[in-house]
Structures are given as C-alpha cells and as structure tokens.
Design a protein that fits this description.
By secondary structure, this protein is mostly helical. It folds into two domains: 61 residues, Arc Repressor Mutant, subunit A, CATH 1.10.10; 89 residues, Arc Repressor Mutant, subunit A. It has nine helices and six strands, in the order αβααββαβαααββαα. A three-stranded antiparallel sheet has the order 1-3-2. A three-stranded antiparallel sheet has the order 4-6-5. β5 and β6 form a beta hairpin. The protein is globular. The two termini are 25 Å apart.
Length: 209
C-alpha cells in the first residue's frame, strides 16, 4: 500500500493525521503536493474532503453531503465524543493541577510521568481525586494509579510516549479535537435539536466530522 492509500484509509477510519502522533504522514500531506492531491481526489470520489483543526496540526476527513444519513452520523459522533470528553477533561484537569500549570493542557504539550507521580504522592487531595476518577479503592499505590491513568490516556489516543528514557509523554491533536468539538456543541446546541431542524448547524458540522 502506497503512502497516499494508507493515509486515505486512516482518514476514512475516522483517524487524525497528527503532527505529533503520525509525524511522517502529516509531513507528507503538508509537504508532498502529489500525495495530498491523490488523497484529496480519493476522498472527493467518496463524498469526503480533507479538513484541518484550527491549529493546523492535524488533518481529518469530513462529509460533503448534507443528507439525513450524514446528519445522523454527525449526531452520533458528537454524542460519543461528549460522553467520553467529560471523563477525559477531568483527567486533563488533574494533570494540569499536578503539574501546576496556569493554563489548561494543550495538544503538543509535554508531560513527565515521574513529575506527576511526585506531585500526587505528596498531595492527599490529588490522591483522592485520582482514586475517584479511576474508581479504585484506597489500597492501590500511587505508582499503579498513575500508570493506569497514562495507560487510559494512551488507549484514547490523547497522549503518546515521547521518550521512554525520560518517561515523557506528549499530548496529541485529539485533545484539540475534543476542545474544539465542545465549543462547537455549545455554540450550536446540536445534541438537543432534530437533524433537519437547523440547516445552518448542519453545514457547520462538516467542519468537525
């Protein structure tokens, strides 16, 4: 399978081509005009097109059509994303608090596994919050709990291991997608309207799917 076909397949599977998680494919889309044209041509033939997140650090595929099926797909996508986002953003809040960041963590930020353990190990409030988020009993060690947290973050595609030697992880563009989707839903209130009730909202959702 050539590069264009592989990238297109990933996009059709709903995956992000991210500057952090899939660096090589991201660079191919941004720097190789021939590959990008082939990807866009294939997507167009399948009623899709290439879209980027606001930062420009990730590509994804969106639907071109505004039929009922497309709108229903959009509603399912947002419903699933929002249901997971509540938990995921609580994890982000814990990590921001444990690393004493003044602003919310962003895609591309680095975080140290060791620093998180150190911070939580000396903070009873963070320990309790971590146990509640992971729904575990008080007997589990902090090291085990933080390991579980990072494992879940990796499973959701929110972080990737940047350096095994230094125990560093980097937040991927999925975090930006979550944040952008939450803003979109808040603006359009699309989870509480019928698919054909708001045509303008239907047009806007193409930017997010």
């Amino acid at each position: 399978m050539n590069y264009a076909s592989r990238i297109t397949q990933h996009l059709l599977e709903g995956k992000l081509i991210c500057a952090y998680e899939t660096k090589e494919d991201f660079q191919r889309l941004t720097q190789n005009e021939d590959i990008r044209e082939r990807v866009e041509s294939t997507l167009f033939n399948l009623d899709r097109r290439l879209q980027t997140l606001e930062s420009g650090n990730a590509f994804y595929a969106v639907r071109n059509s505004l039929d009922t099926s497309a709108q229903q797909d959009a509603r399912r996508f947002f419903s699933d994303l929002i249901s997971k986002a509540r938990e995921e953003l609580a994890w982000m809040d814990l990590l921001a608090e444990s690393t004493q960041q003044e602003t919310f963590v962003q895609a591309g930020n680095l975080i140290s596994y060791s620093d998180v353990i150190h911070a939580i190990d000396y903070n009873q409030s963070l320990q309790q919050k971590l146990r509640e988020l992971l729904k575990v009993n008080n007997e589990a060690s902090i090291v085990l709990l933080v390991s579980k947290l990072f494992e879940r973050l990796k499973q959701r595609g929110i972080v990737i291991e940047e350096s095994a030697r230094n125990n560093q992880y980097r937040f991927t563009s999925r975090l930006e997608l979550i944040q952008q989707a939450l803003v979109f839903v808040a603006m359009h209130n699309m989870l509480h309207t019928e698919p054909n009730e708001n045509h303008d909202s239907a047009k806007s959702q193409q930017r997010m799917l």
